C-alpha cells in the first residue's frame, strides 16, 4: 500500500490533465465545466485512478453507455451498467473499485457553477436529500433521448467558437441540463415532495452544507458555523432541522464519522494521527466519540 496521509481532493484543473489519459479527451469550457462523450475510462483501471478514496471539487454526472464499473460514494457501493446514471454533488467521498470496458458520457461542473445554478432554485435541497439516499438511477429510453438532445446542443455550440455569445449559450445549456437531470433524480422521491419550500431557509441550509464540506475536518461546534452565517446557533439549528429533518450536530457527525471511517480503512495513518487530523484533543476522546457514533472502537472498525 502506498503512503496515504489524507483524503485527496481533485480540482477541475487536475481532472483536465487526467483527461489526457482517455481515448476521447474531454471538452472543457473555461474553468467551470468539463463534458465528455463516448469516453472509454478503462484508464481508471490501468492507472489505478481513484482507487483510493478521494473527493472531487465538482458536481459529477456520469451516464453508462456500456460496460460495468463498481464505485463507492460515501462508502456505499454502486454497480454501474448500461443505462444507469450517477449524479454526485460536492463533498462526497468517491472510490472506484474496478471498471471493465466502461464507456461513458457525462459532465463535471465546478462548485461555484453548481452553487450559483442551484442555490436560487427549489431543487437544491430536495435534490441533495435524494442523492444522499441514492445517487443512481436507471434512465428510461425517453430520458436517454433527452440526454442525446442536450449533448447534440452542447457539441453544436462548441463547434461554433466564433458565434456571438457562445460562452453564455453553452453555460445556459449546461444549467438547463443540470436542472433536467436533477428533476429526473428528484422524481424518485416517493414522499415529502409536497412539503412547503422556503428559498431563504433552503439557501441557509445549502450555505451551511457548503461550510461543513470545507471545515468538518477541524470544526465540530455548531457555533463556528453559525458565526460564519452571521446568525445565532439557536436560529441555525432550528432552520437546519426544519429544512432537512436533521440537526446541524447530526450533519456534522455524519461528515466526521465518514472521514474517520475512510481514513481508518484506507490510509496508513495511525489512530493517533487520525485523531490529530480530525482535531480531537486526544486519541481517547476520538475513540469514545467514534464508538458512540458507530458502536465500534476505531481499532475494531479498522480491523473489521
UniProtKB/TrEMBL annotation:
<dbReference type="GO" id="GO:0003700">
    <property type="term" value="F:DNA-binding transcription factor activity"/>
</dbReference>
<keyword id="KW-0805">Transcription regulation</keyword>
<dbReference type="GO" id="GO:0043565">
    <property type="term" value="F:sequence-specific DNA binding"/>
</dbReference>
<feature type="domain" description="HTH araC/xylS-type">
    <location>
        <begin position="206"/>
        <end position="304"/>
    </location>
</feature>
<keyword id="KW-0238">DNA-binding</keyword>
<dbReference type="Pfam" id="PF12833">
    <property type="entry name" value="HTH_18"/>
</dbReference>
<dbReference type="InterPro" id="IPR018060">
    <property type="entry name" value="HTH_AraC"/>
</dbReference>
<protein>
    <submittedName>
        <fullName>AraC family transcriptional regulator</fullName>
    </submittedName>
</protein>
<keyword id="KW-0804">Transcription</keyword>
<dbReference type="InterPro" id="IPR009057">
    <property type="entry name" value="Homeodomain-like_sf"/>
</dbReference>
